[in-house]
Structure formats: structure tokens, C-alpha cells
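Continuing the series of single-chain predictions for the mutant panel. This is the parent chain; the variants come on the following pages.
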Amino acid sequence: MIFGDGVSRNVLAQWTNQGIRFSEDLETSMRLVQHEGGPCGVLAAIQAFVLKYLLFAPEESDNAVPNNLSNSGTRKEPENGCLVTDILQSLSEEEKSRSLVRSMSEILFLCGRNETAVIASLNILDCDLLESEKGSVDEVIAKAHESVSVESGSDLQKVLRVSTCTSLSSAIQKLENVLPIFRSRMGALLFLISALLSRGLVINIYSTFSTSIFLLNTFFKNKHLT
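Parent structure:
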């Protein structure tokens, strides 16, 4: 349904080498990094929700932008002259990860009509092995990805793990646990699959008005993601 049978390796490469992670540069530290064309629609949606969470939900974030900057009316500059960009750049990695998890959870629940959220991750590493390996979690998962080759939908199904959450809190907890997987090279594709499964395959097929039109391929690319 996503790629079809005739997908090119170039399209697969675009989607299997795109994680969901913030820029390491200070000036762009709150921007999600995109390596190639293709997953831009997925990243743009998540980016918008991250900014919404930080700017307009101060009650849910200990270090969100202050109310005098986040109110939807006229915005006043703080007395110390600190701009919104300065505040966003000062957020810790933990705060940025929390905003990302909250945003992804909200999107998936909206796809599931505020009833369920389906989270797709990879069954490539168990917790015991993760704790025994040396290095950061991201490094360990990146190493585990070296043995994963995705050249077709069937290849992906072999390592795909799907979980269904019936509350926003459980979705947040699940995403917190698997966030390193989404930061890895297949993160954007996994989030797309999560959104499609949360919405429901029947609804997705009906939305395209045809079972023969794929969401992503060399001809249509991202045309049917809207």
C-alpha cells in the first residue's frame, strides 16, 4: 500500500535513511534534520506540532516559552530582551525529547480519532542486549540497524513490531521507550506506518479512491500523503 511492487531503490533509500532527530547546531537546534527529499511531509507535520507544544502549551511543559510570548494575542518581548529563538535554543535534550514524544503521540491519536494510537517499531534489539552493549543507546541501535536490509515490504514486515495504545498516556510512555528507534535511520518510515495504522487501512484505501494507487512510488511520490 505504501510503496507498491515497483518501488525504486532511490525511493526506498530516502525513507530508510531518515530518522526523526533535531539538529546538532545551536542555531537550528529545534529543527528536525532532513537528509533527502521524500519524508518532508512527515517531518513538517511533526515539526509543526513540536513548535505548537513548546509555544502554546506552557502548562504541559516546565520550560515552555513564557505566557507573555505564547499567548495567541499580541506578544510582548521579555524585559531582558530574550527572543523566542533564544528560549528554544536553551532547551535541554530531555526537554526536546519530551516535546517530540508529546507531539508524535498527539498526531497518532488524532489519526486514531482520539481513541487509539498504533506505534510501529523494529524488533531488532531486546532490552537485555541493549543494557549489555557499550556506548550510547543511539549508537547501539545504529549498529543493530546494520543487519537490517529493506528492499521490499516483506523485508520490513520481518522486523516490524506493532503496539496499540488506548490512551494518550500509554502512547506517550510507549514512545518514550522506543524514541531511540524513531531517531534511527528508519524513524520517518516507522512514523508514517504508525500514522496509517492508527487511521486504519480501510480508511486510507478509501481516501485514495483506488486500491491500485500507492502512497509512495516513483511516479506519485508524496502526492497522496495529504
